[in-house]
Amino acid sequence: MNNKLRNIGLGVLALSAVTLSSCSDSFLDEELTTQYSTEYFDTPEGLEDLTISLYGNIRWHFGYEWAYGITLYGTDEFTMGGDNTSWIWNTYDPALNPANYTTALGAPNGNCPGVSALWDEMYYGIASANTIIAKAEDVFTDEAKRKLCLAHAYFLRGYNYYRLAAQYGHFVIQNEPVNTVVRNFTRSTEEECWEQVISDLRQAYNLFEGENFTYGKGISWTKATAAHFLAKALLFRASERNNSWNSKYIEQDLKDAIEACTYAINARGGESGLVANYSDLYANWKGVDCDIEQTDEILMAAGHNASSATIGRFGNRTYNYFTMQFRTVTAQWTQRGQFIGGMEFQRCRPTEYAYAIFDHVNDARMWKTFRTIYGINKIVDKDLAAQKGLRLGDPSCVMILNTPDDNTYNNYKFGNATGNPTWKDDNNVLGNGAGKWAPASLVLYQNGQYVGNTFGTTATNASNFFAGINKTDDCSRTAEKGDAHRDVTMARLGETYLVRAECYVRQGEYDLAKADIDVIRKRAQWKAGEERDVYESADDYFETANSTANNTFNTVNEAGETIAATLIEMNKWSNPKKNTYYLSNPGLARTTAASDLTNWTFDNLPVEDQKVMDKLGISDKRERAINFILNERTRELLGEWVRWEDLSRTGTLIKRAKAFNSEAASNITEGKHELRPIPQSFLDGLKNEDGSNLPEEELKAWQNPGY
Description:
Helices cover 38% and strands 6% of the residues. The chain is an alpha+beta fold.
C-alpha cells in the first residue's frame, strides 16, 4: 500500500463514521482522542484526508465471513466445506430471512453474516462520500484537488450503491449529509436505484483525469477503475434480472458499456496490460507491496500492509476460507501455522462444476489456481515413516483432479491417514520415485462417478478434504490466525475483457465477443517451455527476508526427535513445488509444448462447456453464449467475490444452483432468492413523522418478494 494511505492512520477513518453513527458519550470520548472534529472537514486538508479514508471503507468487504457468504455461497462454484458457520447463505434455508441469524435463533456460532451487514456498511461509506460532495465546492480553491476528491466521492458512492442494488435490488437513495434524526425514507424503485448507480459512476468517470495513480499504483482509483464499474453497472441494468422494465435502456447501455470497457482496456495497455503469467495475478505473491500488487491489470484493490497502525476496523481474513482441513485429514502429518498460506477453516469447497469446467490438459489456470499437494512437516510415526520411506517434505495430501472418463483409479482406495495404497507414479512427478505412500489422498472420479465430495472426516456433503484455491494465501501473518497483509484485488482488466465480450454477445456481435474471450484464453494456455507439474504459491513468501522467517516451530523429524525448525524450514516442507497434473491426466506424456485454447466457436463449444449446456438444457445461441461467458468467468475469476452477483444478474442463479450445488437445490426459489431480504433492523426503525409505527402494509411494501 502507498505510504500516504499508510500514514493517515485510524483517526480519519474513525471520523468518517461521525455523520452516520449514533453519538453516545463513549463514542464521542473515543473520537476526541483523534484531536480532530467534524470542522476539520471544512478545510482542504481535512476533506482530502476524508477522501483518502474512503479507501478504508472497501476493506470491510474482506474482513470476515461476509466476504464469501454474500458473494460465493449458494452458487454453482462453491458449496460448504466441513464448517457450517454461514450455511444458510449456501442452502437458502428459511433462516436466511430479514432477521440476522444469531446464536439465539439457532446459528452454530456468532460469525454467520447478517443480512444487514452490507446494508449498514455501505451507508457508512456513502455518508462520507456525501460530506465530500456537499463541501468540495466551497472548501477547495485548487480545481485539480477539488475534481480529484469529487471523483473519489462519486466513485465510492456509486460503488456502494452498486453493491446495494446488486444484492437487495432497491435501496434508500441518500445523497445529502444527514445531520438530524430521520424517521422515514422514500423507497426507491430498482429503476431509480440503477439510474443513481450509473449517474454516480459516470460522474466519477468524467471527473478522473486519466491513469493518475495519486495514492499508489494498484491501490488508487483512476478513470479506468470508474470505467470498469460503469460498464458493469450498465450491463447489469441491461441484463435479465431487470427485464420487467429495462427495455428502453438496453441498446444505449450496451453501447456505453463497450465504450467504457474500451477506455479501460486501452488506458491500461490493451492485451499487453494483462499480466503475462496467470500465476503472477495471485500465486506468486512474495510479500507486502510486491510487484504483483502493482501491475496495470489491477483496476481496484482493497489495500493492506504490515503496519499495525493502519489495520483499522477490519483486517484481511480471506486466507481462512478456501483451504481444506489438512491437519485433520493427514492425522497431524501436516501441521498448520503461518508458514502455510491458508488457515484450514474449510468454508468454501469447490463444486464438481468448478473442477470440471476447466480443460484439465490445456488450461494452465486450473493448475495455477488449485492446490493439489501438501507436504509432511511432522513425522507422526517414525516406524511407519521408515517402512514407507517418508521424509519431511514428502507429500502428505495428494489430490488427483481427474475426469469422468478416467478409469485409472477405479480400484484404488483413497481417504485419510490410514490404509492408503502406494501410488502408481510412473512419471515420478512427486519427486520420490514410483510407489510412494501418502497419509491422505483423494480423487474426483472413480468408475465414471463423481466421488470428490466423499472424502474427509465429516459428513459426505460437508467434506473437509478437497483441493482448494490459492488466490488469498498469505504467509506474512505474524501469527497463525493473524491478519493477512496482502491486498485483495476487487477488479482487474481480465474481467473487463469478459464484460465487453458479453456486451458484444448481447448485440449479436459474436466474432468481436470471441476475439475478447480469446485474449483471456491465450493467456490461460501453457506457454512453450512451461513445466506443467510445477506449482507456484504465495507460500514461497519465506524465500524472501521477513521479520518472522527465522522464528521456530516445534516439530518431529524422521528419527522421532522433537526439533525447533525455523519457519523457513516449515514452509519448505509444507509446500512442495509440485502439482498432480500428470497423476490427474494419466497416460499423458511429459511435455513442455504450448497448448491452444482458441479452437472453438459459439456454434462448436469446448467439450466441457457443451456438457454444461446439455445439463442445463440450453440450445438457443445467445443463451449458450452468455452461459459460455459465465463458464469462462469461472475459469478466469474463480473465488474473486463476484459469482452470486453474476448469476443473479443474468437470471441463471436458480437454474445453475439447482444443477451444480446440491446443498442449494432443495430450497432455492425463483422469484425470491435472486434478491436478498431488506434487513429487519432497518425496517424496525421506520416510523411516521410523529414517531408512531408505520402501517403493516407500508412495511410489507418495503420488503423484497418472498420474504
